[in-house]
Write a structure and sequence with these properties.
A 4-stranded antiparallel sheet has the order 3-2-1-4. The radius of gyration is 12 Å and the shape is globular. It has 1 helix and 4 strands. It is of the alpha+beta class and 67 residues long.
Length: 67
């Protein structure tokens, strides 16, 4: 397993990006921002009231994601 980064889960959606002071979310995991630093991930999670999910992949594939 390879550690890829962090994603912010918001209900059934994911954090995609922050534009100015607005948060953009997406429904597809593949579109979610893969955050590489835990400090930034925690900051976004705290601002949105959500949780940080650690992202691991097997064989470097992002095709399937299961919690």
């Amino acid at each position: 397993m390879e550690f890829l980064g962090y994603v912010i889960k918001i209900g059934n959606c994911y954090f995609k990006q922050k534009v100015n002071y607005d948060y953009v979310i997406c429904r597809l995991f593949k579109e979610a921002m893969k955050i590489t630093t835990i400090d930034y991930a925690k900051k976004i999670a705290e601002e949105t009231g959500r949780v940080v999910k650690h992202l691991y992949v097997s064989d470097k594939k992002l095709d399937e994601y299961k919690e």
